[in-house]
Amino acid sequence: MEPEEPVPPVLPWRSTARKTPRWPEGYWRRVFWRGLRLRCPVCGVGKLFRSYFVMWDHCKACGVSFAREHGQWVGSLDINTFFTAFLLMIGVGFGPLWSLRTSLIVWCSAAVLVPLATFRFVRGVWTAIVHLTGGVY
Ligand SMILES: [Zn+2]
To answer: CB of 95 within 8 A of CB of 5?
Structure first.
């Protein structure tokens, strides 16, 4: 992916120029990429996380609020749960034939470690999805 050129934040529901707010062409790709890079989906500059598990309330660069609704992060938990379950099913189904003891150790550890490793990136993507649906502004 090429480095991003600076563009003004896109907040179409605040625009009075159009009757029907729309995203620019290809904007969702840019926003998803910002989420995967753990950056603010609106400006792409401010960081989402202040520590491994704790997010900032607002973007330090453009000031948008990341979480406005109670229960907003349940969607990211859903994505992480399904992603982990899918990954483990693929691993168990197509992985090496181990003894029951080894399999339990490996896959139970993976069931704990995979969601911890993907937590931030799934949160970033979910923040991007929430922004695209009008919840981050
Ligand atoms: Zn921002």
So the answer is: no
Going from the Cα of 65 to the center of ligand 1, the distance in angstroms, rounded, reads: 9
What is the domain range of residue 123? 12-132
In a domain, 4, yes or no: no
pLDDT band at 26 (very low <50, low <70, confident <90, very high): confident
State the distance from the centre of ligand 1 to the C-alpha of 63, rounded, in angstroms. 6
Task: Provide the number of structural domains found in the chain.
Answer: 1
Q: Is the pTM of this model over 0.85?
A: no
Task: Return the beta strands (E) in the chain as ranges.
Answer: none
Average pLDDT score over residue span 95-100: 88
Kindly state whether residue 6 falls inside one of the protein's structural domains. no
